[in-house]
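Figure S7 source data.
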Amino acid sequence: MSMNRVQFQPGLSMAQFLERYGTEAACEQALQQARWPEGFVCPVCGGRRASCFPHRGRPMWQCSACHHQSSLRAGTVFDNTKLPLSTWLLALYLLSQHKTNLSALALMRYLGVCYRTAWRLKHKLMQAMSEQEAGRRLGGLVQLDDAYLGGECPGGKPGRGSPNKRPF
Ligand SMILES: [Zn+2]
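Tokens for the predicted zinc ion complex:
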């Protein structure tokens, strides 16, 4: 049996994900490394020197040059929420791993949050992913598939000819 290289490509298993990002501290460390790989950079003046202090249980940085205070989440998609970073990263993992999309309802059950939170979280992450990909252009031979969206329509035509279905 031939194996599809795309479908069988190596990825991050749930066990590996939880091992790497299963705690709040690990997630903060990962975000800090991704955001400031060479150490703190002030978002206002670009200064590299800062003092770090705790604020409401989370670390804050104060730029030594311009005294601007910044948190790890400020200016990121994770800003202005009370949700733990570990919840955000788990949502990111789940949304990126499901080949056939993950509903907000399913995300709600996986994360143990309310539906409204799951819905907003999903849409914020999808918006961020869309903005990240917006500048990318496909090259070479591009192949597309079509699909039909719509439910059952008793008595109507089946398949693609159904008046209840819309192609996209
Ligand atoms: Zn500064």
